[in-house]
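Bug #77: duplicate submission created two jobs. Keeping one. Sequence:
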Amino acid sequence: MKIYVYSIPKSGTYFIADFLGRVGFTNTGYHVMANYFLDTHSVDLAVNASTPAAVMKSASFVQTLRLVPPRGVAFGHFPAPYLPDLIPRYTFICAYRHPRKTLLSEFVDFRFRRTDIDWLASDAVSSDQDAFCLYLERHGPSHMRIFSEMLGVATLVQDELFVHMDPQRFHFVNFDHVLADSKAMTQLGRRLGVSADDARRAYAETLSAETKTKATNIGIDRNALWSPAAERAYRDLGAEAYVKRGKSLGWAF
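Kept job's structure:
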């Protein structure tokens, strides 16, 4: 078995990979894209958080996933599960979260941790509220496209006509449920052959660990970012329609 953690941005990508690395799997640190990957274990967390392109290596997603050893873990937002026959030994953990949370969390990451997104820097936009609106307008559609792609995967998994999408290979996880208590990860661990005791231990260790995108030491009033203009930009993304579709597929928000 190999594992690909397929996630919507800010839905526990690195958290889940770290957890898996603590229960007997090998976390390669490979963040998979279509034609390259980020070798996140090759540099320290500070570089990963501020300038992720520093660890970019050219390779197709198939090449990257074939580099993963048995019982290895890779992750990313690229929809590799659409082509499960190309990577037959993989199990897919699909992590999602409500878009109001993922959009806001990604904005915080872009503005306060990354140093390579000039158009969101304080020198370009002084107001955090204005910067959030700009993010929603400029990057929000790309973010929601990833959400839509995962909904598409979930739809195919439930359609009996798509026999190549074996439901046994897919596990959908709400990251908010993961953060709330250990039950979600204990259940996931059981499906992967991990004992409940090992899962609970690993969960506690992962909660206290620092990861690439963990938003620590960032003092900002997140609720204040939801200005009337930001709410309008959010509505324009049609995000709530995506949530409704997710619920119809059994996703819990």
